[in-house]
From TrEMBL:
Gene3D superfamilies: 5'-nuclease (3.40.50.1010)
The NYN domain, residue ranges: 190-239
Organism: Thauera aminoaromatica
Lineage: Bacteria, Pseudomonadati, Pseudomonadota, Betaproteobacteria, Rhodocyclales
Name of protein: NYN domain-containing protein
Superkingdom to which the source organism belongs: Bacteria
């Protein structure tokens, strides 16, 4: 059981993506309710480590760090919907900024913000891209449409004899392209500076001895170098992947696996992780 100071680091992008899978929709459908979920997560982590009175859990906390990125505020033209988009006025951007304002008012909480940059132009969803690339051979029948411009009228009909398989392929090709809508393409936006801030804070907390235990709420293995540093310096390092499965080799780089939110009632079999697992 930990009795020293506890620092809780939350990867905001990961947390906000996982939260709807862990709590009912009516508990996370507004910035205020999301803040309440963050508070609940932190309180439960502290109680699991200290078995302290729930009303006095914050006395064990050095600080809570929430990492996210300022929403993209640029403009673009949607290639399928054929409409302009002002990302700064989107509901996602407004809700995220409101969330940041509420978090700034929370006790012992520090907001660490990177930014979102435009990394590349519009792209089709990867799964659909693979399907479209496989249709390249379906259009082979169109290779027969080689007109002699000098001897043919622009209004003259063109006859094309197709086999049943070629007709079927062209129909499938047409249906596949018709499935493309506004949601099948996305602008290439990427967070920048978030992982760096997490790593720097882990190093700073460790080397300055500002805490005795670090709880990291994250879902990838980018934290491993920082976790190694923290554990070498005597820091207790606990990971909360919010019930997302983690690789077995990560256990040698952490001191425990612990969840601050309850296990989801309905979840895929591959999306589970033990509630508590200690690395002896």
């Amino acid at each position: 059981m930990s009795t020293g100071r506890i620092a809780i680091l939350i990867d905001g992008g990961f947390f906000l993506k996982r939260l709807p899978r862990l709590v009912p929709e009516n508990r996370c459908d507004s910035p205020g309710k999301i803040v309440a979920c963050i508070r609940h997560l932190c309180r439960r982590h502290v109680k699991l480590l200290t078995d302290s009175d729930a009303s006095r859990w914050q006395q064990h906390v050095y600080r809570i760090f929430f990492y996210d990125a300022v929403p993209y505020d640029g403009k673009a033209h949607h290639p399928i919907d054929n409409r302009p988009i002002d990302f700064a006025k989107s509901r996602i951007a407004r809700d995220r900024l409101e969330l940041f304002e509420l978090l700034r008012k929370e006790r012992k909480l520090a907001l660490r913000l990177g930014k979102v940059i435009r990394d590349h132009d519009w792209a089709i969803a990867p799964a659909l891209t693979k399907k479209l690339l496989r249709t390249r051979n379906w259009a082979a029948a169109l290779d027969r449409l080689e007109l002699d411009d000098a001897g043919a009228s622009a209004d003259e009909p063109v006859a094309l004899s197709l086999s049943r398989d070629e007709v079927r392929s062209l129909i499938e090709l047409r249906q596949l392209w018709r499935t493309l809508d506004g949601g099948t393409v996305s602008l290439g936006l990427r967070q920048k500076g978030v992982d760096m801030r997490i790593g720097l804070d882990i190093a700073s907390l460790t080397l300055k001895k500002q805490a005795d235990t670090i709880i990291l709420v994250a879902g990838d293995s980018d934290f491993v170098p920082a976790a190694k540093l923290a554990r070498r310096e005597g820091m207790e390092f606990i990971l909360d992947p919010l019930w997302q499965q983690v690789n077995e080799d990560l256990f040698e780089h952490i001191d425990g696996l612990q969840s601050g939110l309850k296990r989801p009632v309905h979840r895929p079999a591959a999306d589970s992780a033990p509630a508590v697992a200690t690395n002896e």
